[in-house]
Amino acid sequence: MPITLASWNVNGIRACHGKGHFDTFLAEVKPDIVCLQETKAQQEQSPLTLEGYHEFWNSADKPGYSGTAIFSRIKPLAVTAGLPKRLETKHELHDDDFGNTNNEGRVLTAEFEDFYLVTCYTPNVKDDLSRLAVRHEKWDPAFLAHVKALAKKKPVAFCGDLNVAHTEDDLARPKQNVGKAGFTDEERDGFRAMLAAGFVDTFRLFTQGNGRYTWWSYRGGARSNNVGWRIDYFLVSEDLVDKVVAAEIHDQTLGSDHCPVSITLNL
Hints:
By secondary structure, the chain is α+β, with helices and mostly antiparallel strands. It contains five helices and 14 strands. The model has no long low-confidence stretch (mean pLDDT 93).
């Protein structure tokens, strides 16, 4: 049975929905499950009325900030918010690390019969790299420990705005951005650690080379000139790879500075 999973950093669900593009995307792609990042809203503030979808939210305590959500036509067996308190990491992640990370609504995990699905809004290290060390030493290991623990139980797909361009093919101007936020050695090492742990970047199963991006700055006509970054992903554990039959970047979909990405699984 094929099912389509979509992921989108909407940069404010109220703003994105108000532009009309969210409903258009759903009508065109017809995803069975939609994962959102940077919702910037509490559930009761949501403008969405998605008939036939079960909805789950992990909103930030801070109003208008961060947040994730999952909308699914398939009812999950269970849904949990945040990262577990106890993780097998070298550096334990505490609530006060990274600005009360577990209060920022950055991770939402849904368990289905055949797999786990995790949506993630990875913290940005800031232009001055002031949060790079804690991301590299705490957040990235903690998130990886979470998905590895899930993968011991059943296959895993995780998605979202991971706030890193993995290789030079994943941004339009790599040489100018070496060492800058989103393209530091530390952030790229965090992504490589996911691959080393057995998770697979699904888009690269089907498409190689540069020119396909998921985020563009609002400045300088970046989107119209396709001066972008690929920082939104779907990764799957190795036992799901042969079930991935498509992986797409929907770069014609407007409504946010990010565009949606999707995969189709034949389960």
